[in-house]
Amino acid sequence: MSGSAFNVFKSRVPVAWSPRLYITLVRGLPGTRRLHRRTLEAMRLRRCHRTVEHRTTPSLLGMLTQVKRLVAVETEEMYNARKQAEAERRALRPPLVVSHRPPPPTPKPAAAAAEGAAANAQ
């Protein structure tokens, strides 16, 4: 997830129903209410920018409404698309070959060499 946690929170769209939800903690725990910290602990979210996978249940949806400003929720399709984009960004690229040697002198054509030799002889 690029950008700040606020941008992630601000750009969230309503999530369509999905059998599995991927929940990422995008804001830190210090300064939050104890109830919210315990809710995140129940969802196995203990560190920032960690993602967990959960089945969609009414109790999970209730927990998400409680801590909605601290987490980002993705469906399986959204999660896979994000991971694929990250993998493409991190993929190895062909190396750049930089040569610091001066280019070799280009050989003169035979006709130009003969004219140059005749000019030198005179």
Strand order of the largest sheet: 2-1-3
Which geometry do the CA atoms define? rod-shaped
H/E element order: HEHEHEHH
Please identify the oligomeric state. single chain
CATH topology label: Ribosomal Protein L30, Chain: A
Percentage beta strand: 5-15%
CATH class call? Alpha Beta
Q: In terms of structural class, how would the helical and strand content be classed? A: alpha+beta
Written overview of the protein:
The N and C termini lie far apart (76 Å). The model has no long low-confidence stretch (mean pLDDT 76). The protein has helices at residues 5-10, 34-42, 58-66, 76-90, 110-121, and strands spanning 20-25, 51-55, 71-75. The protein is rod-shaped. It has one domain (5-90): Ribosomal Protein L30, Chain: A. By secondary structure, it is an alpha+beta fold. A 3-stranded antiparallel beta sheet has the order 2-1-3. It is built from 5 helices and 3 strands.
Question: Keywords, please?
Answer:
single chain; 122 residues; alpha+beta; Ribosomal Protein L30, Chain: A; 3-stranded antiparallel β-sheet; 42% helix
List the topology elements.
Blueprint: H1 5-10, E1 20-25, H2 34-42, E2 51-55, H3 58-66, E3 71-75, H4 76-90, H5 110-121
Antiparallel strand pairs: 1-2, 1-3
Condensed summary:
Keywords: Ribonucleoprotein, Ribosomal protein. By secondary structure, the protein is an alpha+beta fold.
